[in-house]
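Tokens in:
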């Protein structure tokens, strides 16, 4: 069971644990506000986490019901290991492995928020856009109305999206050049439209 918590360490903790303690007052643990343009959705993803020479796999389910974002990291038997919920500025994390995390789980919600929640991912009317966010300046690039890249400056995080015509990206690649981790995320299942 500890493998999920250890694996999630590489999701964001490997980069953050060295500089930000679990309850450090200096940590920027701002949650990303969900864009009012995001419709309810369900997405199951396979996450390949790389940090240095280590690579780990885990599955995650992310749901947004219009009010609450719920993220569930699954253990190898597909049972919930860590559950996180964000409703506005309210956040809670629970599950059999949440106490094993060496960092505040809000770091994970920041990564999820950066990739999926701060704006629609398609039906966009711009080619390039720069805007402020809770995480600092964000630079987006869209092709044919679909988000293809996002750069979160303060986090040194580049996010690339691949599409095959569906409402959800088929894959998302997240690279953090400062903390030196990368995530290769493959969509396994997608329900509802992310951004209609």
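Residues out:
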């Amino acid at each position: 069971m500890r493998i999920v918590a250890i694996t999630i360490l590489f999701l964001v903790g490997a980069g953050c644990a060295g500089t930000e303690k679990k309850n450090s007052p200096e940590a920027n643990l701002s949650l990303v506000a969900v864009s009012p343009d995001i419709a309810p959705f369900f997405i199951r993803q396979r996450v390949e986490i790389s940090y240095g020479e280590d690579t780990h796999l885990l599955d995650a389910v992310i749901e947004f019901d219009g009010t609450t974002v719920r993220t569930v990291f699954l253990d190898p038997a597909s049972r919930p290991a860590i559950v996180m919920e964000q409703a506005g500025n309210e956040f809670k994390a629970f599950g059999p492995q949440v106490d094993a995390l060496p960092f505040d789980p809000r770091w994970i919600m920041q990564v999820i928020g950066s990739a999926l929640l701060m704006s629609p991912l398609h039906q966009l009317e711009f080619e390039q856009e720069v805007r402020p966010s809770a995480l600092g300046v964000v630079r987006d690039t869209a092709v044919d109305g679909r988000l293809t890249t996002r750069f979160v400056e303060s986090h040194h995080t580049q996010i690339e999206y691949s599409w095959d015509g569906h409402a959800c990206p088929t894959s998302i690649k997240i690279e953090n050049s400062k903390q030196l981790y990368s995530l290769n995320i493959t969509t396994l299942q997608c329900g509802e439209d992310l951004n209609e």
